[in-house]
Amino acid sequence: MWGSILRISIAKLWTRPRAALCRLGWTTLLTAILAGAVPKFAWAQLSAAPRPVPILTGSAGYFTVKDNGETELVPEVIPVVLLPLGDRWLVEARGEFKGEFARREDTGNYGGQVENELDYLQVDYIANSHLTVTAGRFLTPFGMYNERIYPIWIRDLQLVPLIFSIGTGSSDGIMFRGGFALNSKVNLNYATYFSTLSTVNKFESDRTTGGRVGLFFTGPRIEVGGSFQKELQEDRKNSFGFHFAWQPTPLPLNLRAEYARSVYGSGYWVEGAYRLGQIPHWNKVMRKTEFVARMQQTFAGEEQPEGDDEYNLPRSNVQQPDFGLNYYIKDGLKVSGSYSRWLGRRNWNTWTIGIAYRFAIPLGRAE
User: Fold this and answer.
1) Rounded to whole angstroms, what are the CA distances from 258 to 201, 220, 223?
2) CB neighbour list of residue 14: distance below 8 Å, 6 or more residues apart
3) Does pTM surpass 0.90?
4) Is 6 or 236 the better-scoring residue by pLDDT?
5) Rounded distance, CA 269 to CA 292, Å?
6) Which ranges of the chain does DSSP label H, i.e. alpha helix?
7) How do 289-300 and 208-217 pair as beta strands?
8) Beta carbons of 142 and 227 less than 8 angstroms apart
9) What are the beta bridge partners of residue 268?
10) Is the separation of the CB atoms in 210 and 231 below 8 Å?
11) Which domains does the chain have, with CATH numbers?
């Protein structure tokens, strides 16, 4: 997923080599023909160009969640494999292994199970600088949270938004995505897809179509966009949403918001994350500390099927403020804690504390 934060986070490891090869263009394809005509010193310079290598990356974390008085231990590992094939092809996959262990009443010990999911397994073809064609299992391009924010080392708050299940998840099919500049101040990004119906274990998906479009204004560093999804089976339901992101230049602030609506309900969330580096005292600590606040609200719609998704929408109207602190020990390693208050028919608190680590391991050496 070229537009997602996950691939951006490892760009230093593989984007530059790939970009260098792209600048070579068709020259690399004609090297066999030109071998006899190119001087040896020029050939050496060409063959010395770095080539992209496979990457094992992803994140791992361990969290303690106290929800409505019940404590749960949640270890999680999310490995990602990136396998470049030449200048224009990439195979990428992400799995998720998540444990949920609660205290058993009979023994007092913690017990539970480890769930495993295949988030995506896809082949990307870079047709040109404005278009990438993807086939296989991919993250559904709806809103921005699913593709850009979901990994535990990227999230500013470990609890996902209440409306996360609307339009998101994984799809099996084909996707077209890319971006281009409308002018010197505005860039457009887009994604459109078709997904087939699948009941194969770990490859479940609905028959849907849809897409997302966004406008990024380079001066104020603001992105606004919208998403649409059409279900092509059963009741042929529609879902739509809007997203907003802003990173003001004068402040170390990251502001995001989403709204989504489906027949099962609707809602919004607004989240701000502020690095405390501008505080003059204890600067070495403050510049690694981040304060997060989020407000979200949902409105109930039709009743959602039981067991359809672990992130089912609430069955009644809910408000939930969330607050958190993150401390970045170093690049890719952070500790975090948060507090949430569920305000609905029943009110309760949720506390989380834990650690998340992001890793990136080259599986070879550039030649």
Assistant:
1) 31, 19, 12
2) 52, 53, 55, 82, 84
3) no
4) 236
5) 13
6) 5-9, 11-24, 31-34, 40-47, 283-286
7) unpaired
8) yes
9) 259, 297
10) no
11) 5-362 (2.40.160.10)
AA identity, residue 125:
Y
Q: Tokens standing for 363? A: 């599986």
Q: Which of 317, 308, 337 is nearest to 165 (CA)?
A: 308
Distance CA 58, CA 34 (A): 41
Residue 88 has pLDDT above 90, yes or no: yes
Q: Which secondary structure element, helix H or strand E, spans residue 326, and what is its range?
A: strand 318-330
Helices and strands of the chain, counted as H and E runs: 5, 16
Q: Kindly tell me if the per-residue pLDDT of 175 is higher than 90.
A: yes
pLDDT band, very low/low/confident/very high, at 308 (cuts 50, 70, 90): low
**Which of left, alpha, beta for 282 (phi over 0: left; psi -120 to 50: alpha)?**
left
| pLDDT, mean of residues 12-35 | 36
Please answer whether residues 211 and 177 qualify as being in contact, where contact means their C-beta atoms are separated by less than 8 angstroms. no
232: Cβ contacts below 8 Å, ≥ 6 apart? 207, 208, 209
9 pLDDT exceeds 80?
A: no
Q: Tokens 């938004």 — which residue?
A: 161
Mean pLDDT, the chain, rounded, equals: 86
Average pLDDT over residues 140-158: 95
pLDDT in tens, 91-119: 999 999 999 999 887 677 888 889 999 99
- What type of residue is 53? V
